[in-house]
């Protein structure tokens, strides 16, 4: 029983990180139509910025994390200005390829800046763990769930209760009509890149203290987050959060208890099954835009 | 010795007398005054997995050799070409770049897979190579992937598995041995080998778990080891750090045996404090914990020069340069065929660090030593067991 509790907690924490990463995908996709393949490297960059702020600059952990997120916002804006804005009138495939180029540039710059030696990122939660009914749950995983919950609520409020959110939803539903209605697509695009980049950075900062920071940190997370976004319908905020939690729990519980040799394959299998049997995802997107 | 046409020799005679048209009597790219070695490895920043250990170890050896008068009175020059360990096709073309530098000997090639793919080019180059790659079964001389021009300073891979399994069974008296590793060739091949070794002793693995090398959560894998007497986990430094932290967090108090990844995880401070107390490394040597005066001096010099703790990889690279020196001296020059012959005859014992002696067996393996190193929570390490394995015959297929 203690194993089930530990695996459930681990699955929820995994799902929470995936949710933050997948929401970054979602916000950008709905506002601009772009699937950003630099998202994985932005996750990695967020973790490295955390290392830079807390280790190189010597800032306390929380101010260090905040500085890292501020820099991530600036990076998001920079990517929008250099890899998206000049290509706004180009076919979507060109923009998507530009995001791949941005990924390569980001990875290369990190390698030059920080080298290839793995680093460690301190966490405000420390290395301790909580014992619940015989199961051990790391403080960091509890922090991940708490921060993800706050982030999801903040995004729900942003997209449900503000003018910005209504404009993004309008763009996601019908971009042409939204433009005719006066939605400021350029400003929305810039804001979406900033929010997406900050969410990627946050995912990196939350997951890095569990292990080590290296150049490959974000790539695997991006792929699994993509699966979560597809599972959730790639349009619905609630759907993506549910999809992420489902992926996290499937990997940990189903993988850990039933198919230990195949746990890493479960997310791609789920992605494949969803695409084949329910391409609209778990939540009906036409009724639930963000 | 290359035979020069008579006419060219006559035409060159005046200049030869002037000392400007001389031939050292050797093949290779060194000059009359120098011997040229080319290192085949990356340094930090050239890829996500690049480390400086190979280059720094070799650099130190070159400095030591030159300070002692060089090789046969000739100064040693170390050049370098970055070899991508994860891209065999690219590594092969990079190898050709190294050949273009016209070296007297080659040292390096840290990736076994890349080395196998470059086998044809190594054969054609006809330049002796002392490889620093993990000496996998496919590199054992006589195998299809092994070059007649390559020798290995890292012990045969199988020795690492044998040492780990022998230690947990014989010294720890473990009967429930868990196996972990990455889900690519490195992890799965070792788990397969460890499983076979356990089966030879009438045991089956307590549990076997593989995971992605970029995994950030190993809860299910770690929990599967609950109840094991020992865990053998030949993995990469990052997932090893996650493993050790999660073993501690889940209250699983079990000794874990890893490879040189343990050293790298400790040196890079991926692991500090309590998670270290159950960690062991199965490595050819541990310069950081050696009590041998020569090895300690090497470790201190390395630390002073590069501000890093010397690993077994750095020591292996250092030793490879000394082996090259011995081979060239035995050959009486840099003629490749003579060096090739010398490589089968030399027994290098003098200045080397990572093994008591380097002597090539029929499989071209030069190092048969393997040590079990135990870490403490303060980051210090101690060699607790040393194995010396028998010479290997050449592969028959």
Q: Explain this structure to me?
A:
The complex is a heterodimer of chains A (290) and B (397). Chain A is mostly helical. Chain A has 11 helices and 2 strands, in the order ααααββααααααα. Chain A has helices at 2-32, 39-56, 61-84, 92-114, 139-161, 163-173, 175-180, 185-207, 217-231, 237-258, 266-277; strands at residues 129-132, 135-138. The radius of gyration of chain A is 19 Å and the shape is globular. Chain B has 397 residues and is of the alpha/beta class. Chain B contains 13 helices and 14 strands. In chain B, strand 13 and strand 14 (381-388) form a beta hairpin. In chain B, helix 6 (157-171) crosses helix 7 (185-200) and helix 9 packs across helix 10. Chains A and B meet through helix 1, helix 4, helix 9 and helix 10 of A and strand 7, helix 8 and helix 9 of B.
Radius of gyration of chain B: 22 Å
Low-confidence stretches of chain A: none
Q: How far apart, in Å, are the first and last alpha carbons of chain B?
A: 33 Å
Q: Structural class of the helix and strand makeup of chain B?
A: alpha/beta
Please provide the ordered H/E string of secondary-structure elements of chain B. HEHEHEHHEEHEHEHEHEHEHHHEEEE
Question: What is the arithmetic mean of pLDDT of chain A?
Answer: 87
The spatial strand order of the largest sheet of chain A comes to 1-2
Range of helix content of chain A: over 70%
State the end-to-end CA separation of chain A: 37 Å
Query: pLDDT under 50 segments of chain B (min length 5)?
Result: 1-5, 7-26
Greatest interface and its participating residue counts: A-B, 40 and 41 residues
Strand content of chain A: under 5%
């Amino acid at each position: 029983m203690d194993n089930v509790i530990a695996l459930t907690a681990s699955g929820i924490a995994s799902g929470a990180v995936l949710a933050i990463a997948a929401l970054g995908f979602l916000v950008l996709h709905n506002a601009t139509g772009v699937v950003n393949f630099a998202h994985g490297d932005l996750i990695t960059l967020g973790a490295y910025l955390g290392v830079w702020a807390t280790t190189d600059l010597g800032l306390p952990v929380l101010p260090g994390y905040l500085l890292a997120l501020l820099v991530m916002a600036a990076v998001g804006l920079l990517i929008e200005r250099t890899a998206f804005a000049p290509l706004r009138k180009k076919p979507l495939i060109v923009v998507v390829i530009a995001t791949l180029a941005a990924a390569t540039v980001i990875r290369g710059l990190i390698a030059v800046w920080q080298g290839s030696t793995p680093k460690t990122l301190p966490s405000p939660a420390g290395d301790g763990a909580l014992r619940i009914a015989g199961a051990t749950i790391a403080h960091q995983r509890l922090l991940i769930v708490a921060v993800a919950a706050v982030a999801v609520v903040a995004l729900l409020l942003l997209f449900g209760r503000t003018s910005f959110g209504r404009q993004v939803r309008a763009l996601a539903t019908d971009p042409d009509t939204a433009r005719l209605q006066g939605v400021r697509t350029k400003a929305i695009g810039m804001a979406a890149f900033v929010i997406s980049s900050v969410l990627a950075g946050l995912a990196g900062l939350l997951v890095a203290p569990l292990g080590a920071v290296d150049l490959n940190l974000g790539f695997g997370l991006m792929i699994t987050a993509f699966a979560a976004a597809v599972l959730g319908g790639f349009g619905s905020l609630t759907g993506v959060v549910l999809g992420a939690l489902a992926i996290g729990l499937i990997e940990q519980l189903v993988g850990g208890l039933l198919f230990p040799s195949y746990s890493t394959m479960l997310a791609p299998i789920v992605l494949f099954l969803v695409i084949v049997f329910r391409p609209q995802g778990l939540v009906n997107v036409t009724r639930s835009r963000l | 010795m290359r035979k020069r046409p008579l006419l060219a020799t006559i035409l060159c005679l005046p200049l030869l007398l002037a000392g400007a048209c001389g031939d050292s009597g050797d093949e290779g790219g060194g000059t009359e005054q120098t011997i040229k070695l080319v290192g085949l490895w990356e340094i930090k920043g050239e890829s996500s997995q690049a480390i400086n250990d190979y280059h720094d170890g070799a650099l130190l050896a070159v400095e030591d050799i030159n300070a002692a008068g060089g090789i046969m009175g000739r100064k040693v020059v170390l050049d370098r070409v970055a070899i991508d360990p994860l891209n065999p096709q690219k590594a092969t073309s990079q190898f050709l770049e190294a050949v273009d530098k016209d070296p007297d000997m080659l040292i390096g090639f840290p990736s076994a897979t890349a080395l196998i793919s470059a086998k044809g080019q190594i054969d054609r180059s006809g330049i002796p190579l002392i490889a620093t790659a993990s000496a996998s079964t496919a590199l054992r001389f006589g195998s299809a992937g092994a070059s007649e021009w390559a020798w290995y300073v890292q012990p045969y891979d199988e020795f690492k598995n044998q040492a780990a399994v022998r230690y947990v069974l014989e010294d720890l008296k473990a009967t429930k041995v868990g196996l972990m590793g990455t889900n690519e060739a490195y992890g799965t091949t070792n788990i397969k080998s460890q499983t076979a070794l356990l089966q030879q002793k009438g045991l089956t693995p307590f549990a076997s778990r593989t995971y992605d090398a970029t995994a950030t959560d190993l809860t299910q894998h770690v929990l599967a080891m609950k109840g094991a007497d020992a865990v053998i986990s030949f993995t990469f430094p990052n997932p090893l750090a996650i493993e050790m932290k999660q073993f501690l967090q889940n209250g699983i108090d079990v000794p874990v045996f890893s490879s040189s990844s343990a050293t790298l995880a400790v040196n890079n401070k991926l692991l500090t404090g309590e998670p270290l107390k159950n960690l062991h490394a199965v490595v050819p040597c541990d310069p950081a914990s050696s009590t041998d005066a020569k090895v300690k001096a090497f470790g201190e010099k390395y630390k002073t020069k590069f501000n890093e703790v010397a690993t077994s990889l750095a020591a292996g690279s250092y030793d490879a340069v000394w082996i090259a020196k011995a081979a060239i001296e035995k050959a009486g020059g840099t003629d490749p065929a003579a060096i090739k012959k010398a490589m089968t005859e030399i027994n290098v014992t003098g200045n080397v660090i990572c093994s008591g002696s380097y002597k090539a067996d029929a499989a071209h393996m030069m190092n048969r030593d393997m040590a079990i190193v135990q870490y403490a929570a303060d980051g210090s390490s101690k060699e607790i067991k040393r194995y010396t394995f028998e010479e290997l015959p050449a592969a028959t297929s």
